[in-house]
Amino acid sequence: MSGTTIYEFDVLAADAPGVSDTVGLRSVPPQVFAWLESQALSLAEVGEIAWLRLSQRRGRWAVQVASFVGVIRAPDGYQIEVLPKVAKAIGGGDDEARELLIEMLRCLGGFRHIQTDSAQLVATRMPLLEVFIGEFLRAVEHLVKRGLRSDYNPQQDNLFALRGKLQMATHLRRNLCRRDRFFAEFDEFSPDRPENRLLHAALRRALAWTTSQTHQQLARELCFVFAEVPASQHPSADFQRVRLDRGMAHYDGALAWARLILEDKSPLTGAGGHRAPSLLFPMEAVFEAFVAKHLARQLGQGLTLRTQARSLSLVRHLEKDWFRLKPDLLVQASKVNRLVLDTKWKLIDSQQATGSEKYGLDQGDFYQLHAYGQNYLDGDGDVVLIYPKTDVFNKALPVFKFPKSSGLRLWVLPFCLRDKRLLLPPCGSLGALFLNAQ
Predict the structure, then answer these.
(1) One of this protein's Pfam families, by short name (predicted)?
(2) Which of 87, 95, 265, 296 gets the most CB atoms within 10 Å of its CB?
(3) pTM of the predicted model, to two decimals?
């Protein structure tokens, strides 16, 4: 299956003479660009999250992928793999970027089931969509080895022998002249239950998507195991009926993948009437989850990390709280706030301190952190902005101070994606909160 690999914020244009030589443009087949263009226009019209934007480059219509990573799959099967931009900034290639993304996705709640070894991904150069399909198939294979769960399902039928409870009214109406029949209601012990129907439907879709012979063979074998189970025709309704009761823990991983495959919640998908999966993930959320998981291990004893705290508001109006203050991360000791942190998926340059550049920092982020510090720390303590570490941002910036808040300090710190740790300033008040502070 044809496709291409790009990075966040790369620009795509329809393949035409001279496009491949145009700086900053990546070419895709004309029919794929037409589909992408329709997606961008649809997103702009309905006001949804703009993972794709329409623009112009050197007189050509183009589309730009925003801060999302993953896989875009056009209706004709053409795949566009979108990798994290920071991989280029730290000197990695496509394989290293793909490995980094898989490692970061493991920190998202819905993708904690990823088991593929990163070294294996680099060796096989497996596209992301095939990685996701492979993970789903392995989860179902593990489930099958543990055994499919059956359940008692109520049935009604006109039987030759009485079974269960005779439905007298219906029996008399249908069998008045047929004394050899009994219309009865009974329970049938069958694997036809919502969980198995959903897995069967997801297997069929995965079989249609994959181009890997290994995955195709495994998908067919697993579909054969589910042959007695009808594929779900109404996934949303069946997901509401799912019951992971005792003895069903081994269904958890497979159903998590099935939900992504069947409901196109991954967490975004292109609009339209076709079944084109687009497994796209906002990098802000991925980076936040990655930092939260590994930063918790770096904290000192007695400290805990909360994510998305929402206990305070910016103002009160008409006896109601307005404008919730939701820092990404909040460090507490015995429920006392000690540190407020916000993650930003953006590349900054520690060498651009003069002029209008100001390292590439956003003034709005400073206003936001100031509000967090005033409300969560009573204006006395440390607030932190966390950015990914790169070659041009590999150590903490000098501390920022607020003139009217003498006790509030703001730090801009790099988080090393490879070492999975926050790089702290060589001196200051932050060292007491972390283990092995440098």
Answers:
(1) McrBC
(2) 87
(3) 0.76
